[in-house]
Specification:
The chain is α+β, with helices and mostly antiparallel strands. The chain has two domains: about 60 residues; about 375 residues, Outer membrane efflux proteins (OEP). It contains twelve helices and six strands. The protein has a four-stranded antiparallel β-sheet with strand order 2-3-5-6, with no helix packed on it. Helix 11 packs antiparallel against helix 12. The chain starts with a helix and ends in a 19-residue tail after the last helix.
């Protein structure tokens, strides 16, 4: 632009050159204001568009279709057949806690790749447009820029530690995933075991109801011909009403358990969930023998099996590496850079085609910022150590409690089985006395009801043993679903 003015002046057009310069100067500010206004309008339009498009995005990305109502489902729907491992897998796929743990593990895996990438240089492009608004603009290029390579030597030197910490986070995330799956498997087994016990109770309650119904009809017949007193007929009727109420309560509770299982697995509640290998799993739980006096070696084996203990160890390692990382902030930072282009690395060599720069920095006076950061990281590290100590006590107490609960359940089952056998023998003996006319038939009905109730108690006691064994297996680090263990430790991040 200055060359054009000099040509006009040499040709004797000094006044014209001056007027042209004044016109361009007067138009420069309105043009700049118009450009700024246009940019502001574009930004405002983009912001308004983003605000309007959020609901559209959510509506297009997430399906909000509601599930069909229960009344629309077929009453004769085929049962949903699974093995226990398949049922646990389906429940885990639809569990929010498991999904969150998997997402955390995946993010930690990305951090491992990020730690690996610290050994490579960073390549940046820098460009700038500049237009002075006044003064001498001769020799000022409107465009400048270049390509720059930069290193962070501190990150390169300590990239191994960063990778180890990232791998520990991956291992911790995977242990948390497996811990959530084991908890879900335990909850599913407890619900399935409760359903088996409730089914047995419903069957026995139905049998008692049928017996009371037959006895009530017979009592009404005998009452009409005068062979039974009114008080006895009313007593038969009361027994029938009580048995009907208990049967309805048992059916209602069975339906609630079925709904809970359907909610865990997200299946259609009109379908019956069938677990093909559940009897084998219950038999395996019933054969589990608790450790009466767990020694240090047994507790150490349980510690090595449980996923929460492994996650706690990984968390302690991560917190220790965080303390070390905070202490390294006191070290000087050296960053070499190499640039190609017309703009240097913030130096005065603006026209140099190639620039090498070696920058170093270290804190001199930070008013205790680094010290406070180290102290906060140390608090987190000490808390992780305390959590491991408390977790060890928790594991020991939990083993003792679950072992005692399993022993008590086995003792209660044996006692109820013995009582049931005695009631059955007494019922058979009284049957002969009634046939001989010695006892009242109402006494036989009462004995049958007691025998059926003893069957209910015995079935419930057997299931209680299975549930206590499942709790003991979960406390001792054993997986109920029988799936392969998730890798842990340093191998998880490789």
């Amino acid at each position: 632009m200055s060359d054009r003015y000099s040509i006009l002046r040499r040709n004797g057009l000094t006044g014209f050159a001056s007027r042209l310069s004044e016109v361009e100067s007067s138009l420069r500010l309105p043009a700049l204001a118009a450009c700024m206004a246009l940019v502001c309008l574009l930004l405002a339009g983009c912001a308004a568009r983003m605000k309007q498009s959020v609901e559209d995005y959510v509506g297009s990305a997430i399906s909000r279709e509601t599930a069909p109502a229960a009344g629309q489902a077929s009453e004769l729907a085929e049962p949903a057949v699974f093995t226990f491992s398949q049922a646990c897998k389906r429940a885990a796929e639809n569990d929010h806690d498991v999904a969150s743990a998997v997402a955390d593990a995946d993010k930690s895996q990305v951090e491992v790749a990020q730690a690996h990438s610290h050994i490579w240089p960073r390549v940046d492009f820098r460009g700038a447009f500049q237009q002075p608004l006044g003064g001498n603009t001769q020799g000022v290029p409107p465009l400048s820029g270049g390509v720059f390579f930069r290193y962070d030597l501190q990150q390169i030197i300590f990239s191994g530690d960063a990778t180890a910490a990232a791998r520990a986070k991956v291992a911790q995330g995977r242990e948390n995933v497996q811990k959530a799956i084991d908890r879900l498997s335990r909850d599913l087994f407890l619900q399935l075991a409760d359903r088996e016990a409730q089914r047995a109770e419903v069957a026995q309650r139905r049998q008692i109801l049928d017996q009371n119904s037959e006895a009530q009809e017979r009592a009404h017949q005998l009452g009409r011909i005068g062979r039974l007193k009114t008080e006895q007929v009313i007593e038969y009727q009361i027994q029938y009403e009580n048995s009907s109420r208990l049967y309805q309560n048992a059916v209602r509770k069975l339906a609630e358990i079925n709904r809970t299982i359907c909610n865990l697995m997200l299946t259609d509640c009109a379908q019956e969930v069938v677990i093909t290998d559940l009897p084998e799993l219950i038999a395996r739980m019933n054969a589990l023998v608790p450790e009466s006096k767990p020694d240090a070696q047994f507790v150490q084996g349980v510690w090595n099996k449980r996923h929460d203990t492994k996650a706690a160890e990984d968390d302690l390692f991560v917190k220790e590496m965080a303390v070390i990382d905070e202490r390294r902030k006191r070290l000087p930072t050296i960053s070499p850079s190499f640039g190609l282009g017309s703009m240097s690395l913030n130096s005065s060599l603006t026209q140099s085609p190639a620039v090498f720069q070696l920058a170093a920095s270290m804190p001199l006076i930070d008013f205790g910022d680094i010290k406070r950061s180290i102290h906060k990281a140390s608090i987190e590290r000490d808390l992780a150590r305390q959590n491991i100590s408390m977790l060890l006590l928790k594991v020991q107490r939990e083993l003792l409690d679950k072992s005692a609960a399993l022993s008590d359940a086995i003792a209660a089952r044996d006692a109820i089985e013995s009582q049931r056998n005695s009631i059955v023998k007494r019922s058979e003996t009284n049957q002969k006395l009634i046939e001989a006319g010695v006892l009242d038939p109402l006494d036989l009905l009462n004995l049958k009801v007691r025998a059926a109730q003893s069957e209910i108690d015995a079935a419930r006691a057997r299931i209680d043993v299975s549930k206590a064994a499942a709790e003991y297996a979960y406390a001792s680090g054993r997986s109920l679903d029988g799936g392969p263990p998730v890798q842990s430790g340093g191998a998880a991040g490789k």
